[in-house]
Please model this.
Amino acid sequence: MVTLTRPDGTRPEDLHLSRRGLTLALTGGYAVAAWSAQAQPVKTDEAGLVTGMVELASPARALPAYVARPAKEGRHPAVVVVSEIFGLHEYIRDTCRRLAKAGYVAIAPDYFARVGDLSSKPDFQEILKLVATANDRQVTGDTAAAVAFLKGQPFADAKRI
Model:
């Protein structure tokens, strides 16, 4: 079982997964991802949080990202939320808010901003073609830009990303 509810940092026992647990997590994660763009998302309120869009300085161009963090002062551990193939939609923003409620700074880069809003595309085959345009170098660069952004913020603990 993986637990990300400790603002003081992840402990080794949080990351212990059996082979069966890992298989269930991956297949369950895929099922949720495939279903989540069509499902009615959970709406976590923003009370006690600071949320909004920011621009990341990624290698190719400025990249939008959603950030949610606790409103209380101090440096908080941070998490980069990687979206599934539907991009930065309400489910991903809500995931960031839930992590922020647990004491984390959460940032979700819009990896597919270069090709548009994938959550609004009705044709799954079209979505797959657009997602395929995001290569490893681009995604790695976008993730590095999110980490660099976090390291430069007074509310994020650069040692706990």
